[in-house]
TrEMBL record:
Keywords linked to the UniProt accession: Coiled coil, Methyltransferase, Transferase
GO molecular function ontology, one term from the record: methyltransferase activity
GO biological process entries: methylation
Keyword Methyltransferase annotated: yes
Coiled-coil regions, chain positions: 187-214
Protein name per UniProt: SAM-dependent methyltransferase
PANTHER family: TRNA (ADENINE(22)-N(1))-METHYLTRANSFERASE (PTHR38451:SF1)
Top-rank taxon, per record: Bacteria
Gene3D superfamilies named in the record: 1.10.287.1890, Vaccinia Virus protein VP39
Length: 235
C-alpha cells in the first residue's frame, strides 16, 4: 500500500498525464499511478545505482515496463525536452528539489504541473516558484508515522505570483494556503519549530557574544515573531 504521503502527491497527478518522477527510489509512485490513475506514461528517474536497480525490478515485477521507463541519471537529465507534462519530486529537502528544477530548466517547457513534496525547507521551493514564473496553486500538510510532510503544487501561470493577501514573508515560509487554512498539523509543525528556535536562542544567549551569534539571534527573534503572529500565540 502506498504511504499517505505519496498518495497525497498522486492525488494531484492529472489523468492521462505524462509524468517524470525524479528520485523515484523503488518506483512506488509511478507504479501506483500506472495502475490507479490512468496516466499515459511515466519516467522513474534515479541517480543512485541501488535504488535504480530496485525501480527496474519493481516495474518489471508489476508488468508495467510498457508504461514506465526507468532511467539512471541526475535530476531532469533523464528527461528529453517535450517528453512529460508533469513532474513529481518527493522525499528530499526543498533546497535539493529547487536545485533539480533550476538545473533542469530546459526540460520544463512542456511541463504544466509540478508536484513537490519537500521533507524540509518548503520555503526554498516557494522562492523558486516566485523567481521562475510558477504559480503555487495548492498546498497540503499531513502527518504520517510521527513526521509532518508538505506537498506543494505549481502551475505555469499567467501570473507568477502566489495568492498573497497579506505578508509575503510569512507566505513564503509557512505557505499562503496553509496559513489560511491553519489546520491542526500546521499548528503542530510551527509550534514545534518555534520551540526549537527558542531553544537555539537560549543556547546562543549562554554562548559568547560574537557578531555571528548576535545576527543569528536577531534572525531567530524575527522568525519567532513571524510565526507567533500567524499562529496568534504569545512570543
Ligand atoms: N521519491 C521517493 C519517496 O518519496 O518515497 C524516494 C525518496 S528517497 C528518500 C530520495 C531518492 O532521491 C533517493 O533514492 C536518491 O537516490 C534520489 N536522488 C537524490 N538526488 C537525486 C538527483 N539529483 N537526481 C535523481 N535522484 C536523486
Amino acid at each position: 500500500k502506498l504511504s499517505a504521503r505519496l498518495a497525497k502527491v498522486a492525488q494531484y497527478v492529472p489523468k492521462n498525464a505524462k509524468v517524470a518522477d525524479i528520485g523515484s527510489d523503488h518506483a512506488y509512485l509511478p507504479c501506483y499511478l500506472a495502475k490507479n490513475k490512468g496516466i499515459a506514461f511515466a519516467i522513474a528517474g534515479e541517480v543512485a545505482a541501488g535504488p535504480f536497480q530496485s525501480a527496474v525490478r519493481n516495474v518489471s515485477a508489476e508488468g508495467l515496463s510498457e508504461t514506465i521507463s526507468v532511467r539512471l541519471g541526475d535530476g531532469l537529465e533523464v528527461v528529453r525536452p517535450g517528453e512529460v507534462d508533469c513532474i513529481t519530486i518527493s522525499g528530499m529537502g526543498g533546497a535539493l528539489i529547487a536545485s533539480i528544477l533550476e538545473n533542469g530548466k530546459d526540460k520544463l517547457g512542456s511541463v504544466k504541473r509540478l508536484i513537490l513534496q519537500p521533507n524540509i525547507s518548503a520555503v526554498s521551493i516557494r522562492k523558486w516558484f516566485l523567481d521562475n514564473g510558477w504559480m503555487l496553486t495548492a498546498e497540503e500538510i499531513l502527518e504520517e508515522d510521527g513526521k509532518i510532510y508538505e506537498v506543494l503544487v505549481g502551475e505555469k501561470g499567467e501570473s507568477p505570483l502566489m495568492p498573497y493577501d497579506s505578508d509575503i514573508e510569512a507566505g513564503l515560509l509557512l505557505g499562503p494556503y496553509l496559513v489560511k487554512e491553519q489546520n491542526a498539523v500546521f499548528k503542530k509543525k510551527w509550534l514545534h519549530e518555534k520551540k526549537n528556535w527558542e531553544r537555539i536562542y537560549q543556547q546562543l544567549e549562554n554562548a559568547a557574544e560574537t557578531t555571528d551569534a548576535m545576527e543569528k539571534k536577531q534572525e531567530l527573534i524575527h522568525k519567532m515573531q513571524l510565526v507567533g503572529e500567524v499562529l496568534k500565540v504569545e512570543n
